[in-house]
Specification:
The chain is mainly alpha-helical. About 75% of the residues lie in helices and about 0% in strands. It is globular.
């Protein structure tokens, strides 16, 4: 029977855990930086300072700023879409499926409002070059499919599903993307506070459903 070096095994597991923890910290810090400056303005020095590591450490995990940026975008979408896949929308009528999807989208934005800022800067700065198109297709494709099912069933009015999907996503995300501009509408209030977030969630769902129902 082979002899297992428990000390070596434990050390390897610890290094593995530390490696994953470091990557997560780097992605967290990079997400904050990209949400403020976008890819063009982001500085690796700032990301390193936030995590207490050297720039060389960042480049060990991510060969370039662009690769780090892609990883941040991919993580944002993967986490959100992973939650979406658990909703079992196929088991629901179209109107109930759309409500459930809207609830999930708005909850995801509430939990990570930086997603909208990063994607807006991606469109402005990079013309969508790094936008994870296959994941975007899944999100918009799901909305379009629900809308088509609702029109077929007669519960949704006749509409152009692609434009409607874009408007739905815009309704859910604009509040978070433009929060610094919108804060003057609620002087002294926290737009990302629990009360206003709940109100925004319900108002968005009501508005969208009123717009698509037959």
């Amino acid at each position: 029977m082979p002899v297992i070096n428990k000390q070596k095994t434990t050390k390897t597991a610890t290094l593995s855990r530390n490696s994953e923890a470091t990557k997560t910290q780097l992605l967290d810090a990079a997400e904050v930086e990209f949400a403020v400056t976008g890819l063009i303005g982001a500085r690796m020095e700032a990301i390193a300072a936030h995590t207490g590591v050297t720039k060389a450490t960042i480049y060990y995990y991510f060969p370039s700023k662009e690769e780090l940026y892609r990883a941040v975008l991919g993580r944002c979408f993967t986490e959100a879409l992973g939650m979406m896949e658990q909703l079992q929308l196929d088991c629901l009528p179209a109107d109930a499926a759309l409500v459930r999807l809207l609830e999930q989208m708005l909850d995801c934005m509430s939990q990570n409002p930086r997603i909208g800022s990063i994607l807006s800067l991606e469109a402005i700065q990079n013309k969508g070059k790094y936008y994870p198109k296959h994941l975007g297709d899944l999100l918009y494709g799901t909305i379009i499919e629900i809308l088509n099912q609702g029109m077929t069933a007669g519960v949704f009015r006749e509409l152009e599903p692609r434009h409607t999907a874009v408007n739905i996503v815009g309704t859910c995300t604009f509040y978070f993307t433009a929060q610094e501009n919108l804060k003057y509408l609620w002087p002294g209030k926290r737009l990302l506070g629990k009360d206003l977030l709940q109100r925004h969630r319900q108002e968005s769902i009501d508005l969208i459903m009123a717009g698509v129902r037959n």
